[in-house]
Amino acid sequence: MHLKRQVRTWLAAAATAAALFASPTPTASANANAQAPQAGRYLNLHQCVYMPASGIDYFTTVVPSRDGRFTTGTNTSDTANTSSSCGAGDGNFEPLQPWAGVQSLNLSAGRYLNLHQCVYYYGQSPFNDHFTTVVPTTSDGRFTTGTKVSNTADTTPTCGTGDGNFTLTPLLSGTKALSRT
Predict the structure, then answer these.
(1) Which of 26, 100, 141, 172 could tie 84 with a disulfide, CB 3.0–4.6 Å?
(2) Taking the model in full, what pTM does it have?
(3) What whole-number distance in Å separates Cα of residue 89 and Cα of residue 72?
(4) Which residues, listed in sequence order, are joined to residue 145 by a DSSP beta bridge?
(5) Rg for the chain (alpha carbons), in Å?
């Protein structure tokens, strides 16, 4: 009996191995010919800034929160977006429209997507706070950024001067050049 059990086990293992080796798998040449889906001509970055009722602890997002409370309209499309799309917040944090913004980046305009992140600081006690921008805000341009598509990789951030209350913090600001291969 013991021998029969071992033979059955070996046969089952052999059948499983044969099935794995016999099943068709994509070849390397088939994988090389497969095209990745196209993202669209434009990367539409929607920057949303949320503020609590207390007026301190602002936060900025360009992608939706995982729990869906803080949404943004960031997308890729063949159409450039012209106005920002931000969610309503969660009741404690509400959108701060003058600092929201949208930037439509034509991905075919150059080799590099140069993301510029500019951080501003407001240090008047008790309202110590930071505010971050990745795209220009819809206010009067004092919180601009150099985010763009170009054939040259940026190495230093381009940022606005702030508004007198919030001042630029160069040490926390930066740029990342992402290259198309």
Answers:
(1) 100
(2) 0.74
(3) 10
(4) 159
(5) 26
Residue 58 identity (one-letter amino acid): Y
For the chain, how many helices (H) and strands (E)?
2, 10
What three-state secondary structure class fits 98?
helix
Contact 49, 96 (CB under 8 A): yes
The pLDDT tens digits of the residues spanning 135-181 come to 988 666 788 999 999 999 999 999 999 988 889 999 999 999 999 87
Which amino acid belongs to residue 128?
N
Bin 126: left if φ > 0, else alpha if -120 < ψ < 50, else beta. alpha
CB environment 3-12: b (16+ within 10 A), e (fewer): eeeeeeeeee
**CB-based contact 156:98 (threshold 8 Å):** no
Asked if 89 contacts 104 with a C-beta cutoff of 8 angstroms, the reply is no
Nearest to 180 by CA among 114, 122, 125, 119: 114
CA distances from 117 to 32, 46, 146, 152 (A): 36, 14, 8, 17
